[in-house]
Amino acid sequence: MTHPNKKVFLYCIDPSIHFAHKSIIKSPPEGYEFLEIPQKLRDSVLTYSRNSPLIKKIYNVFLKPIIKNTNLFEKLYSKKIPKNTDLVYATSRIPYQTKKPYILDLIDTPTSIIGYNYKKFTEKKDKIEKELSSNLCKKIIVWNPFFKEVLKENFSKKVSDKIEYVKLGVEQKDVNKKQGKKDKIKILFIGSASNPLDFDIKGGVIAIEAFKKIEKKFGKRVEFTIRCEVPSWIKKEYNSKNIKFIEERIPFEDLIKLYVDSDILLLPGHDANAMVPIEAMSYGLPVIALDVPGMNAVVRNGINGYCIKKSEKLPYNVPEYPTNLRDKRFTGKHQIDERVTKDIFNCIKRIIEDEKLMEKLSEGALKTIKEEFNIKNRNKKLKEIFDEALS
C-alpha cells in the first residue's frame, strides 16, 4: 500500500526563490512534495519593480537596507501557510506566525535571519534562541559547514543539536569536454543580474585585475565573459575586446550554453556561497576561488580547481564576517591585493599551458559532482531530516 506524499510548504518571504530551493521543489526527497505557492499580485508588482533599472537601484540602495531590518519586510513578503501543510520549509527567516512544525534553511549567513544585520543579530539573539529552541523548530539546515560553527558559537546546545549540514546538489550532466590544445581559452565569471552589489561580493574586481595579467601573457588566446551587473566605471576602465559583459537577465538555456562553452570558472568571491561553483563543476569546469570559510569544502587544490589564499589585508577574521561584506574594504579597488591577483594568474597560466592538467581538473570537477554534490545524495540527507522532523 502506497502512502500519499507529505505536503511541504516553502516559506520564502522574498518573491525571488533561490536556485537551490527551486531545485528542491522540482526534485524533492522521496515521499514528499511541495505545495504550489500562489503568485500574489503583490509579489508580481514587487518582482517587476525590482527588475526595473531605476526602481531596482532605488530599492537596493535606499529601501532594501531599511525594509530588511524592520518588521515591514515580513509584512510585505509574508506568506499564508496552507491548512494541508505537514511541514514548513522556511528559507532564511523564522516563520513566527506558524503553528506547524518547521525546518529553517540557512542557504546564507545566519544573520540572514534578521536581515543581514549583525548588530541586530546580537541584540535579538535571546529572541532567536527562544524560537529556535521551541518544539516547532525541528531542524536547522546549513549548506556551508562554516555556518554550522557560527551557529554553535552563538546559540545553546539545544539549538546546536538541531543543526544539519547538507551538501548542495545539482543534476549530473552528460558532458564531453573537448580535450587537447585549444585555440581559445574561455574564462567565465558568474554573478547576479539583479543585485549591483554582487559584483564586489563575488570578487569581480579581483577577477578582472587577474585577467589583465592573463591577457597580457596570452593575448587573443584568452577570453573573459562576465555575466553580472557591473558598476559603470568597470566598463570604462577595463575596456578590452577580450572581455565580454552580459549584464541583463538571460534565458536559462543561454546560461547553460555559457557553462558548456567555457573552460574555467573564475569566482574569487569573499562569500562562500558555492552554488555557482558546483553548477560549473557539473559541466566539467575547473574552479578558481578564494580560500574563504566553506569554499575549501567544495574546491580542492589540484583536484577540481584551486583555492587561492585570501588576502590578509581584508577583514575576514572578525565576528561580523560575512555580514560585513558591504564594508568599503570589500568594494571597488579597495579589495585588490597584488599577491592574490598574481596567485590567480599563476594558477590559470599553469592550467592553460598544461593540457593534461586542464583535463585532470575537468574530470575531477565532474567526479566531485558524481560522488558528492548531486541530487541523489542531497535528497537522501533531506529525507532523513524531513522524516525525523515529522516523527
> What does the overall shape look like?
globular
Going across the biggest sheet, name each strand in turn.
2-1-3-4-5-6
CATH class category of the largest domain: Alpha Beta
Uncertain ranges: 41-45
- Beta content: 5-15%
Q: Overall mean pLDDT score?
A: 88
- Please work out how many helical segments DSSP would assign: 16
Report the radius of gyration as a whole number of Å: 21 Å
CATH topology of the largest domain: Rossmann fold
Total domain units:
2
CATH H level, superfamily name of the largest domain:
Glycogen Phosphorylase B
Reading the helices and strands in chain order gives EHEHHHEEHHEHHEEHHEHEHEHEEHHH
Structural class of the secondary structure composition? alpha/beta
Please tell me about this protein's structure.
The protein is α/β, with parallel strands linked by helices. It folds into two domains: about 140 residues, Rossmann fold (3-Layer(aba) Sandwich); about 190 residues, Glycogen Phosphorylase B (Rossmann fold, 3-Layer(aba) Sandwich), CATH 3.40.50.2000. It is built from 16 helices and twelve strands. The strands form two sheets. The protein has a six-stranded parallel sheet, sandwiched between helices. A six-stranded parallel sheet has the order 9-8-7-10-11-12, with helices on both faces. Helix 10 crosses helix 14.
